[in-house]
């Protein structure tokens, strides 16, 4: 079901207000992605000034991931129930305040708290923003173009975060924390004027409070367990008991959702093969890239002795390629469909990661590193927009926030899980006091795992190639009675 009040006709050109709305949403997603990557380069300076241990510094990154990944499901459903515009703008205001707090604090615990609050607010802006797009732009070429621009801003923000952090940290790490604040305020003011009002879900069956509590608790515990596992040990009693608790919570969550009249996640959505492939593909895509970026950053700074800015510039070609392709991907999706583009993108990632296995202690950037960066940039430009389009196509307007939250959860949880796995593999193959060559050799198994994750993503995508044409507006898991009722109403009209 679509809303005639917000969808432009397919033949219409975008109005200045539509462009303005999209730019506001893109700015928020850019900030979300920027914040994930930007803090990494600043960690040494933060630790030095605030006298923080390595384990405490980890929580400056993990705190954001915990709030973001743990509350996305709740954020997506809240947008559907309370209104996407309201949820988006309130969360964006909280994000701005948390950014200001993070740049002014003088203690580690307060900085970690500000990062958790930013992650929490991003868990509401991300699904709300994506669902605003999918309910404002009609499914098809209009939406594909909008989503290609939107998701490209996310990929660009993640890539540019390294560059901006390298530049700002030269002056002060506090600037990396403060930078999002004025941008968020400007986006908030523009959003108040431009973002169309949305109706709350007209469903008076009540809120799924038990599902919200159990679902949020299970996601928070899962992310926390995965983040802590490399430090406390994957086989430790604490880790195993935590995973067991996650399994119990998820089992209870599924039971609650099946019985709830207004579930946090309508499980019928996951009966769609294209939806499942989109969710698993998102996990493999982001998980492989986060693991790759982590290892390459260590390689460039620890082994090659490159500065933070030099390292950031090495990643720049990938981000630039993604940015330049932002307005083109939508037309390519219209022509070839999402499954083909996702498959091609994952194939490029596999080749790019495999090529990076050739690196040594004296690499020629243009011959060894640059080809990988260009291949990964092309892959990101193809895969990320296509995954978002595939996940949101054929879903009713009143469930767009739910599906958006689910997709973003897959992205964040995939990143957390696979980064922890890659870290564990590298740690298992390293030893104290090793020579630079031995350290590089310990990175190679991690790079092989990254390549394997991308290959799994490719294999997941291949069954979707059997479909000759892109799937059009298939609403999954409706009962026969609902479909018959809809048909009767249509005939009566």
TrEMBL record:
<feature type="domain" description="Major facilitator superfamily (MFS) profile">
    <location>
        <begin position="21"/>
        <end position="469"/>
    </location>
</feature>
<feature type="transmembrane region" description="Helical">
    <location>
        <begin position="87"/>
        <end position="105"/>
    </location>
</feature>
<keyword id="KW-0812">Transmembrane</keyword>
<feature type="transmembrane region" description="Helical">
    <location>
        <begin position="306"/>
        <end position="325"/>
    </location>
</feature>
<protein>
    <submittedName>
        <fullName>MFS transporter</fullName>
    </submittedName>
</protein>
<feature type="transmembrane region" description="Helical">
    <location>
        <begin position="278"/>
        <end position="300"/>
    </location>
</feature>
<dbReference type="InterPro" id="IPR020846">
    <property type="entry name" value="MFS_dom"/>
</dbReference>
<feature type="transmembrane region" description="Helical">
    <location>
        <begin position="363"/>
        <end position="384"/>
    </location>
</feature>
<feature type="transmembrane region" description="Helical">
    <location>
        <begin position="149"/>
        <end position="169"/>
    </location>
</feature>
<feature type="transmembrane region" description="Helical">
    <location>
        <begin position="239"/>
        <end position="257"/>
    </location>
</feature>
<feature type="transmembrane region" description="Helical">
    <location>
        <begin position="117"/>
        <end position="137"/>
    </location>
</feature>
<keyword id="KW-0046">Antibiotic resistance</keyword>
<feature type="transmembrane region" description="Helical">
    <location>
        <begin position="446"/>
        <end position="465"/>
    </location>
</feature>
<dbReference type="InterPro" id="IPR036259">
    <property type="entry name" value="MFS_trans_sf"/>
</dbReference>
<keyword id="KW-0813">Transport</keyword>
<dbReference type="InterPro" id="IPR011701">
    <property type="entry name" value="MFS"/>
</dbReference>
<dbReference type="Pfam" id="PF07690">
    <property type="entry name" value="MFS_1"/>
</dbReference>
<keyword id="KW-1003">Cell membrane</keyword>
<dbReference type="GO" id="GO:0005886">
    <property type="term" value="C:plasma membrane"/>
</dbReference>
<feature type="transmembrane region" description="Helical">
    <location>
        <begin position="337"/>
        <end position="357"/>
    </location>
</feature>
<feature type="transmembrane region" description="Helical">
    <location>
        <begin position="56"/>
        <end position="75"/>
    </location>
</feature>
<feature type="transmembrane region" description="Helical">
    <location>
        <begin position="175"/>
        <end position="195"/>
    </location>
</feature>
<feature type="transmembrane region" description="Helical">
    <location>
        <begin position="207"/>
        <end position="227"/>
    </location>
</feature>
<dbReference type="InterPro" id="IPR005829">
    <property type="entry name" value="Sugar_transporter_CS"/>
</dbReference>
<feature type="transmembrane region" description="Helical">
    <location>
        <begin position="405"/>
        <end position="426"/>
    </location>
</feature>
<dbReference type="GO" id="GO:0022857">
    <property type="term" value="F:transmembrane transporter activity"/>
</dbReference>
<keyword id="KW-1133">Transmembrane helix</keyword>
<feature type="transmembrane region" description="Helical">
    <location>
        <begin position="21"/>
        <end position="44"/>
    </location>
</feature>
<dbReference type="GO" id="GO:0046677">
    <property type="term" value="P:response to antibiotic"/>
</dbReference>
<keyword id="KW-0472">Membrane</keyword>
